[in-house]
UniProtKB/TrEMBL annotation:
GO terms for cellular component: protein-DNA complex. One of its GO terms (molecular function) is DNA-binding transcription factor activity. Keywords: DNA-binding, Transcription, Transcription regulation. Residues 1-58 form the HTH lysR-type domain. PROSITE patterns: HTH_LYSR (PS50931). Belongs to the LysR transcriptional regulatory family. It comes from Nocardioides thalensis. It holds the Pfam family LysR_substrate. This is DNA-binding transcriptional LysR family regulator. Gene3D superfamilies: Periplasmic binding protein-like II, Winged helix-like DNA-binding domain superfamily/Winged helix DNA-binding domain. InterPro entries: LysR_HTH_N, LysR_subst-bd, WH-like_DNA-bd_sf, WH_DNA-bd_sf.
Length: 300
């Protein structure tokens, strides 16, 4: 078994056929088929069932695919890491993260990285849920990840401190005339701008509202984090979102929660930090400057 055979197998699965895979890999179809046949012979059985139209993975193929894909991705990253160790300013950094973090803290970090290393290309992989983020990175996607502190992680982790969520109120909401810190229970009668049920933030917002004694009634759902702020500022209802994603022109509409909603963030990778990963880590905030809010309602 060799890396080329794994690359061929993954390409056939991704392209849904031998012809398209051969075209993508710039090899002849007979050569590709021969390599896969040798791989199947070594493994002792078929990985792919050839159908009249298309193909289908056998049970062995389904079991083999995740490991083959992880090996191919790891080999590509190893190649890039070796090259970037010599040429830090010409590498590509793959970053996996949550949608809300991509909107909030990453723009400034990437700008800083690019100012220090203008030749670096950053590829983002964005996820709705922390679980799928962790599974993807564990499976070989991306050089590093930024998200909530991962569960049962074997690789290096850098603590990035705490991210606090805030209220953003409509311009005509009477609560803006009151104190800068608001008891969430006093907003139980409002119609809310809420994350879509499929969004990773949805259970966080729902959880803190229920902890305050009510289930938020929706005025609108959206899967876009930046749209939460815009819809609330347009008068559709209050919303809860990370403080670092609030646009500067609507910060005057924000209020802190009496019991803050917060989550701990981390930068993490599978094995060792690459030179580009270390350079990127240096652009992120210091954990000591983002402390856990007092009496926080902590979310995972």
């Amino acid at each position: 078994m060799n890396l080329r055979q794994l690359q061929y197998f993954v390409a056939v699965v991704d392209e849904g056929g031998f012809t398209r895979a051969a075209q993508r890999l710039f090899v002849s179809q007979p050569s590709l088929s021969k390599q896969l046949a040798q791989l199947e012979a070594e493994l002792g059985g078929a990985l792919i069932e050839r159908l009249h139209r298309g193909l289908r993975l056998t049970p062995s193929g389904r079991a083999f695919l995740p490991e083959a894909r992880a090996a191919v991705l790891s080999a590509e990253r190893a190649r890039r890491a070796a090259r970037s160790a010599h040429e830090l300013d010409t590498g590509t950094l793959e970053v996996a993260t949550l949608l809300s973090i991509a909107v909030g803290m990453l723009p400034r970090a990437i700008q800083t990285l690019r100012s220090r290393h203008p030749g670096v290309l950053v590829d983002l992989h964005e996820f709705r849920h922390r679980k799928t983020l962790e599974e993807a990175v564990r499976g070989g996607l991306a050089d590093l990840a930024i998200g909530p502190v991962p569960v049962e992680w074997d690789g290096p982790i850098i603590n990035l401190g705490w991210e606090e969520f805030v209220l953003l109120l409509p311009p005509d909401d009477p609560a803006l005339e009151g104190p800068r810190t608001i008891d969430l229970a006093t907003l139980a009668d409002r119609r809310w701008v809420l994350p879509a049920p499929s969004a990773g933030m949805a259970p966080l917002v729902d959880g803190v509202c229920r902890e305050a004694g009510f289930a938020p009634a929706p005025a609108v759902h959206t899967s876009q984090v930046d749209a939460l702020a815009r819809f609330a500022a347009a008068g559709l209802g209050p919303t809860i979102l990370p403080a670092n994603v609030v646009p500067p022109d609507v910060k005057r509409l924000t209020r802190r929660l009496e019991r803050p909603l917060a989550r701990q963030l981390a930068l993490y990778t599978r094995s060792e930090w690459t030179p580009l990963g270390e350079a990127f880590a240096a652009t992120l905030w210091d954990a000591t400057s983002a402390r856990r809010p007092r009496n926080a309602f902590v979310v995972p």
